[in-house]
Amino acid sequence: MTNALDALELSVNHLRSTIEGLSEDQYVTSAYPTEWTVADVMSHIGSAAIIFKRGIDDSLNERETPPKFNESVWDVWNAKTPHAQVTDSLDADKALLTRLLEMTPEETDRYFLSMGPMKFDFDRAVRLRLGEHVFHTWDIEEAFDPQVTLQSEAVPFLFGNLELLMRFAAKPTGNEHTLHIRTIDPQKEFALTQSVDGVTLNEVEDVEAFDLELPAEAFLRLAYGRLDEKHTPAGIDPTHLDELRRVFPGS
To answer: Are 85 and 136 in contact (CB under 8 A)?
Structure first.
C-alpha cells in the first residue's frame, strides 16, 4: 500500500461488501457506540462524503462554502429512512472516492481542506477521511463480530492523524506523568505525556523499557475511544489501560 488514497479505496470497497452482506433488518442493529444504529453510522459516512465533495469543488473554484451547507446536508440525511441512509451512503461514498481518484496533479496541488483556522493539503485531507471511514466501518462490523480489528492496510496511514486528536480530543486526567508506549505492526515508539497544558504524543528512540506494548491497530482504537475491556486483545498488560481510556474517551 503506497498511499492513503489507495487505502481509502480499499476501505470503500470493504464497507460496500460488508453492507451488501447484511439484511435490511440489520440496518437498525446497534452499532458502536450503541446509541447509533448501522444506518446512523452510514448516514454519518454518507453526509460527510457529500460535504467533503462539495468542499473539493469550492476549494478548486476559490469560493466559500455557504455557512449553513453542512447543517442542510445533515437535515436531509437525518430525514431519510434507514434503508435510504444505507443505500444512499454507499452511492455518496463511491462518488467522493471517484472524485478524489480523478483529480489531476494540478488539482491536488491547489486543493486544501479548511477546518476553522486550520488548512490541510490533499494528502492530509485524504488521511482524515480515511480515519473517519475506517473507524466507522469498524463501528458497523463490531455489531456482528466483536473480535474485528481495523483494516490492516489503513493502519500505517492513521498515525498521522494523532497530533490533531491530541490537540482536540485527549483529556488529561490530572495525573501528570509520561508513559512510554510501543506498538507492533508497524512498530512505533511513543512518549505520551499528561501535563496541566494537555496531552502530547511524541515518537521516541532508544527507550529501554515500555509501560505499554500493544498492536498498532489496538493503540489506534484506544486513541479513538474503541478499546474498552470487551474489545482489548488478550495479552496486553492492563496496568495503564483504565487511565488511558479516560485520556481517550472517544466521541
So the answer is: no
How many Å apart are CA 212 and CA 190, to the nearest integer?
10
Instruction: Report pLDDT for 199.
Output: 95
CATH number, span 4-153: 1.20.120.450
Q: Of the candidates 210, 208, 246, 199, which has an alpha carbon nearest to the alpha carbon of residue 227?
A: 246
Sign of the Cα torsion 198, 186, 220, 227 reads: negative
| 141-193 per-position pLDDT tens digit | 999 999 999 999 999 999 999 999 998 899 999 989 999 999 999 999 999 99
Phi/psi for 88 (5° steps) reads -65, -30
Please check the confidence at residue 133 and state whether its pLDDT lies above 70.
Answer: yes
- What is the Cα–Cα distance from 208 to 60, expressed in whole angstroms? 49
Pick the CATH number of 157-247 from 3.90.550.10, 3.30.1050.10, 3.40.50.1010, 3.40.50.2000: 3.30.1050.10
Q: Where are the alpha helices (DSSP H) in the chain?
A: 4-20, 38-60, 69-78, 82-102, 105-110, 122-141, 155-158, 162-168, 216-223, 241-247
pTM: 0.95
